[in-house]
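[Q] Does anyone have a clean structure-token version of this?
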Amino acid sequence: MKTSRINDPRPQPGRPPGAPAVGCAVVTVPARQGLEAVDILRRGPGDAVGPVLHDDGGDTLGFLVPPGTAAAWDVPGSTCTETDGRGLSLTPEPPVEGSDWLLPPGEADLATDPAVLREALGEAARMIRAADSCR
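[A] Here you go.
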């Protein structure tokens, strides 16, 4: 499994002092599938999952992935949005109002590899379908 560091040394205006500069994308998925994917990724070797946001309503999870991911993202039931670092800082405070960190940057400071995330989301979807068909 691969991960990539979010590491952009260029200063960015408006960023709080000491907050790292971030250019990344966010893959947003339904919470149930996202939580399954987090479990799958955390069972894998190494640092397979990066910072993950969840909304206060509990409806979605957002995985931070490397910049440029949105151009090739095609996983059904999810969206990928580029942030270009605007309004996003990897600090203990969540970058989006109404959200909180499921896996904060201090505990997970790597962006999740998009290929690894794609596989985990696929496995999570299959597990959910199997569980729902047993009802």
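[Q] Thanks! Anything notable?
[A] Confidence is low (pLDDT under 50) at residues 1-21.
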